[in-house]
Amino acid sequence: MRIVIAEDDALLREGLALLLRAEGIDVVATTDGPAAFLAAVDEHKPDVAIVDVRMPPTHTDEGIVAAVEARRRLPGLAVLVLSAYVEQAFATDLLSGGAAGLGYLLKERVGRVEEFLEALHRVAEGGTAVDPEVVGLLLSRNRADNGLDRLSPRERDVLALMAEGLGNTAIAERLVVTEGAVHKHIRSIFAKLDLAPSDRADRRVTAVLRYLEV
């Protein structure tokens, strides 16, 4: 796995690089701004980019803009975005084009090394990793007007874990239920959210993105 890091905080940037290299991951470049990041993507053609949301010069949405541009330049590039706190609009902007190979985590998650590495590998493999706090905020915001009020509390739990990017086995382990029970809950979620079996799109992704209005 070849990774480019874009983070203007030197301590976090180098800490991430050290952590990943210790795990045998090839960090091909570390950058401190969007221009250098995009140049590194062009040069190294990485598998994954880890990008801070707020970078120079304005420290607003440069990271999100750069991440979107990087995926345009290098289709298939997996991107894991890091943010100091939940920024709902930025999560929406990043994920609106599709969730495959995308992650959005709070920086505090980096300190939980196993969780961070699990999310990184999931994104690198084409999956999705969305921070539980982001999921909780979006679910809370949209529950009243998008059909989520039809879901049972357990179904909401399952949907939230789906939104984090977990598969059925991991959801079952997290909720301490059988995989069969998880499968049943997911079928019920699809039915209540009017996602027909004939829908050729990935219904898991649709259930998360459409009904979180991402």
TrEMBL record:
Keyword annotations from UniProtKB, A to Z: DNA-binding, Phosphoprotein, Transcription, Transcription regulation
GO MF annotation list: DNA binding
4-aspartylphosphate: residues carrying this PTM: D52
Domain HTH luxR-type: 144-214
SMART domains cross-referenced by the UniProt entry: HTH_LUXR, REC
PANTHER family, per the entry: TRANSCRIPTIONAL REGULATORY PROTEIN NARL-RELATED (PTHR43214:SF24), TWO-COMPONENT RESPONSE REGULATOR (PTHR43214)
Protein name: LuxR family two component transcriptional regulator
Taxon lineage: Bacteria, Bacillati, Actinomycetota, Actinomycetes, Micromonosporales
